[in-house]
Amino acid sequence: MISLQNGVQKDDMLAPILGRKALLGGAAYIGVAIARPGIIKKTGPMERLAFGEYDNKVSPRAQAFMDACKAGGINADIPPDITVELWQKFVFLVAMSSVTSSMRSTIGPIRANPLTRQFALDIMKEVVAVGRAHGVMLADNFAETRIGHADGLAPDMQASMALDLQLGKPLELPWLAGAVVDLGAQKGVPTPCCRAVRDILILHVDGKPS
């Protein structure tokens, strides 16, 4: 099984149910939003699947899925280290979801203002520090190199969590900024920016009351 849900804790939650050996790590890169029921609107140029075994060997089942993706015209690859791949996505996703949700803004003004841009960078640095504390081989300067990807996004881009906030839907907050806080606490890594985002948005985590 390959879970393409966001976050870095998903397979730890699935393992007791399915067994660790049943799981491959996976990440989906795509910018979409629900325009209306049954209609999905693409909101960015991202189109990629990444997946692989947690021991980073190219197994027959991983290769079979890769072959199926290629046959279907899907942009997919098996990265050298799937855990690093998941955390690299996590670094960027936590930052983008945090700033566009807590600041109630699209990415254009956020990346243009030096203070809000720095806040996004500081969130990335926290996620990198937490990942490295947990043994993930992220480059020490990964946040500084990754922040530039925000400049390539459409200026009206908002993370799906920001859209969920606007629509009064439940938020992924516990598995994004909230997860960074929890994972950081396990290793004694301070995460003040992620904690601020979590605490600002926590009243909305279950969506608007019916």
In sequence order, what are the helices and strands, one letter per element?
HEEHEHHHHHHH
**What proportion strand?**
5-15%
CATH topology: N-(1-d-carboxylethyl)-l-norvaline Dehydrogenase, domain 2
Main pleated-sheet profile = 3 strands, mixed
Could you tell me the radius of gyration in angstroms? 17 Å
Q: What is the CATH architecture descriptor?
A: Orthogonal Bundle
Shape: globular
Characterise the protein shown here:
Helices cover 48% and strands 13% of the residues. With 210 residues, the chain is an alpha+beta fold. The chain has a single domain (10-204), classed as N-(1-d-carboxylethyl)-l-norvaline Dehydrogenase, domain 2. A three-stranded mixed β-sheet has the order 1-2-3. Helix 3 runs antiparallel to helix 5. The model has no long low-confidence stretch (mean pLDDT 94).
